[in-house]
Amino acid sequence: MLLMANFGRAFSYLIAAQVQAVSLILFGYWGGKWLNENHPVNFSWYLVTFTVAILGVAQTFYVVIKAALSPSKSDT
Q1: What is the DSSP letter of 72?
Q2: Measuring CA to CA, which of 7, 9, 34, 57 is 20 to 30 A from 42?
Q3: Mind listing the pLDDT tens digit for each residue in 48-70?
Q4: Cα–chain-centroid distance for residue 60?
């Protein structure tokens, strides 16, 4: 039963991370579009917003993988 609880916890973390990743990428797109239209500069704002979004996605999955690989308090 403990294995199923750990599996369920890990699965819920993964689903939450995927929702956050999709949200970050969508906000990167919408933010870049808004900045390109309202604050034009000599480069595309998409470069900045997508870079920040990808870094956010990488950090999210790093935390999820770190939590999944670390032993929980109930395992010890």
Answers
A1: P
A2: 57
A3: 999 999 999 999 999 988 887 77
A4: 4
- Please tell me the distance from the alpha carbon of residue 8 to that of residue 72, in angstroms, as a whole number: 13
Taking a C-beta distance cutoff of 8 angstroms, is the pair 17, 61 a contact? Answer: yes
- What pTM was estimated for this model as a whole? 0.78
- Cβ within 8 Å of residue 7, ≥6 positions away: none
Q: Per-residue pLDDT tens for 1-33? A: 555 667 777 788 889 999 999 999 999 999 999
Distance separating alpha carbons of residues 74 and 34, to the nearest angstrom: 47
Question: Cα separation of 20 and 24, whole Å?
Answer: 6
